[in-house]
Structure formats: structure tokens, C-alpha cells
Amino acid sequence: MLRSAVLDHTKMERIVRHLGVQLEDALAIAEALEL
């Protein structure tokens, strides 16, 4: 039970990190378009 919870937490961290990277890319593209 505890192990699956840890795996789920790791999976969530990976998803959040991936979304954060996409967000940073989107902001970088937006800045590039404004310049």
C-alpha cells in the first residue's frame, strides 16, 4: 500500500514537472513572438 502511494507520488511529480516545462516553453515562445 505504502509503495504504491510512493509510486503515485513520483508519477504526479513527473507530470507536474512536465507541465512546468511546457509552461516555461509557452512563456518563452510568447516572449519571442512579442519581440
Q: Indicate the overall shape.
A: rod-shaped
Q: Which bin fits the share of residues in helices?
A: over 70%
pLDDT < 50 runs, ≥5 residues: none
Count of individual helical segments: 1
**Which range does the strand content fall in?**
under 5%
Count of individual domains: 1
Number of strands: 0
Oligomer: single chain
- Measured between the Cα atoms of the first and last residue, the distance is 51 Å
Order of helices and strands: H
Q: How many strands, what sense, and barrel or not for the largest sheet?
A: none
Mean pLDDT: 91
Q: Structural class of the helix and strand makeup?
A: mainly alpha
**Rg of Cα set:** 15 Å
What's the short story on this structure?
This protein is 94% helix and 0% strand. It is built from one helix and no strands.
Walk me through this protein's architecture.
- The chain is mostly helical.
- The protein has one domain (3-33).
- Helices cover 94% and strands 0% of the residues.
- The chain is built from one helix and no strands.
- The protein has one helix spanning 2-34.
- The longest helix is centred in the middle third of the chain and has 33 residues, at 2-34.
- It is rod-shaped and about 50 Å long.
- The relative contact order is 0.10.
- The mean pLDDT is 91.
Name a few traits of the molecule:
35 residues, mainly alpha, 1 helix, rod-shaped
Break the fold down into its secondary structure elements and pairings.
Layout: H1 2-34
